[in-house]
């Protein structure tokens, strides 16, 4: 029998119900050829093609008499439906229904060690959590710029990002006319939290002139975006004016777009960081809608030569103080991190963040462990990302092969996400999350038993794995041949393993 | 002016001469648009298209009255031309002409902490060293199997491997008719050391029947291959019979092809490992031609579930004892390592190897930090590889995207090598090798100064980086535009950096 041209694994959507029928946690159930099944988490949402998703959380939100943040609710010992949803999601992600309780989720949120991005006006989100004790999350950036990419392309990238497992998505669009409409379309179609960098739209509204950016303009942008439903804001409030001389001494001064705008405003206006000056008011807006603050690292190093300097660590210290203020005000927050850092300094970054930012969740961009591989920076950064996540980083911002060169194409989005799902999963395994090795072991058993199609079904990209394998298999060979093109039948070690197990009476 | 369709960086071959005119160490000199230059190591040899390379080392070898190994010579306080060549190669690799002296090379070889694979019958090799104190090396596997790939393809892969920086190449051909002729062609065309796994040809000569493998047959293969000029042999002499029950208890018993053949022979013949039994005789052959022994890990874990078990570590302990015997006999050796190992156990593997194998160089295959990404195992393995190399592993065997699925195509060879050059370089930087950050910093300066073409010239794959960038640049924009498609001109942080440096008087 000839092998098929395409491969369609038996993967079906199922839902696990919580204590209330409105809590329906989605999973994909993979059924293998030997009838074994495995649940894997999915972020694709109830309908990948819908322009507007159902507002899953609307009944939960409307029941709350006064709008409080998840952090405030957690502190009042209230277990929200979001927390219960997350406990189920995290527990079954790796097949252990006892691993995470809703009470444990509440405790981590109450301490500020974990964040549930959940704008009350983005009721379409399926709740997820960002915190060291939970599985490592991956963010995908999308967004148009004035030079390339359009509206439909970005919605296409959102869907592609969801298909490949982005736990949150940031819309980094800049310089386009319909930026509000694009964000609205993304929010309504997204079952995962959406983050933005509001200073981008602020600069656009100021006609591109940093001298014209005022607090009032920035406040209006934040308010508008919060009202639309953005779940977290990157705000570079820790980029204090006094840190700029340190950045000037670097090879690559400032590489953060938002940080660069903030620095421009300070230099043009001869003033302190306006987000820092008005931080209380920003927190008020965030508290009202339960927008989480992603305290941005405007001074993240853009070269390994610039890592761990006074600019970077001075900003981290300032951010740590802001994180405490967020906790006091009941606003959820997490901390953005580098960037470019050589491997020997990766752990130091996580450890210092824990210390200076009081164990608020860390959210890093890589870090890239070398600067010499443009075109392959999904790989240079995944090496750093896996390490820092193993050490405690809660969410990884993906880096695509296009980084430093161009806006990512859809194929780049896919490659970036698969690479970061590898990093996140490898870190989960290294952290020893309960049952996190279940899928690895299922795949290894399939390998040992020549269940080729099960290997593909269990892999991060089944169709791709199948294609690579099939390209070298003769058309007329068995449906599941007990060898492959790598060794041929004579040198196949897997065939020996059957005899080995028989010889020593191992089943 | 429109941007060009292709990109031709100014990269020229130069040679640095040693104390004798016969010592000519090759480098590529990259000249940047601002006239700065940078040397990078090259392994392409004097002629990429030659079927037979000049025998560079022939005069050095013929001058030695009795054929001793580099280890024996080092112990007698003799600095060979190979050692001096290596000192220059390692020093200028990262631009520091004082980093490594020939005497330091000699000392590391004398201690058995470094190996110079240099069969006296492979005089075409440009000497290189494998040792913890030196830059991390990368091996590329090529080789035909009975199911796919032919003669010309393999020579093509050798050239591709050299182009992308393979420091050594292993010919893993099995089950083809002209295996000796293919190896001969590879040896004569290769300026880098060639490794093999002689048990493969032995099985072929035994008609594929492990029961027919005898010591005499194995000895003949080893002798023939040593005489041809193979620089190192993977011999699975530490895979002792008493370890087999431990392997049988694994999910994926034995995944090493050579280990699997050795186990077959032991089981069929009810005998101890013949390479272990005849180790003294194997060392004699190796000593005669200065073949280095790559003591193979036939029990390397093929699943993260199987890592660090009694099979793996029991074999490592046995190998460590063999390494001591090699040192006593004056035979150079290094130690093969895993395989599949979750990130939390990677350091443990290197540390135990140092202890049990007396700091003989470690040569690992990855390790892969998760099993769930067939089709992307160049990435899963590069994560483990960078970590273990940072901890001390001297050479990394590349893994291509085809691993576990098919024989690598030429494109796979390229992808695997670039990925592993990233891992090796990132580890060099993390290890703090003198001047190892030079290329990173040059690229970062080019980034800061909008010298796009210099960024490409300095990158691991210039043409690829250029292509990605150019695909999104308008045809009518400037030759070196001071922005790119990622942020567009308005949001470009790099443009701000000029003002930032001016503001704070930084040049």
UniProtKB/TrEMBL annotation, chains A, B:
One of its GO terms (biological process) is thiamine biosynthetic process. Pathway: Cofactor biosynthesis; thiamine diphosphate biosynthesis. It holds the Pfam family ThiC_Rad_SAM. One of its GO terms (molecular function) is phosphomethylpyrimidine synthase activity. Its EC number is 4.1.99.17. InterPro entries: ThiC/Bza_core_dom, ThiC/BzaA/B. Its cofactor is [4Fe-4S] cluster. The keyword Metal-binding applies. The keyword Iron applies. Keywords: 4Fe-4S, Iron, Iron-sulfur, Lyase, Metal-binding, S-adenosyl-L-methionine, Thiamine biosynthesis, Zinc. It catalyses: 5-amino-1-(5-phospho-beta-D-ribosyl)imidazole + S-adenosyl-L-methionine = 4-amino-2-methyl-5-(phosphooxymethyl)pyrimidine + CO + 5'-deoxyadenosine + formate + L-methionine + 3 H(+). Belongs to the ThiC family. Catalyzes the synthesis of the hydroxymethylpyrimidine phosphate (HMP-P) moiety of thiamine from aminoimidazole ribotide (AIR) in a radical S-adenosyl-L-methionine (SAM)-dependent reaction. This is Phosphomethylpyrimidine synthase. It comes from Anaerobiospirillum thomasii.
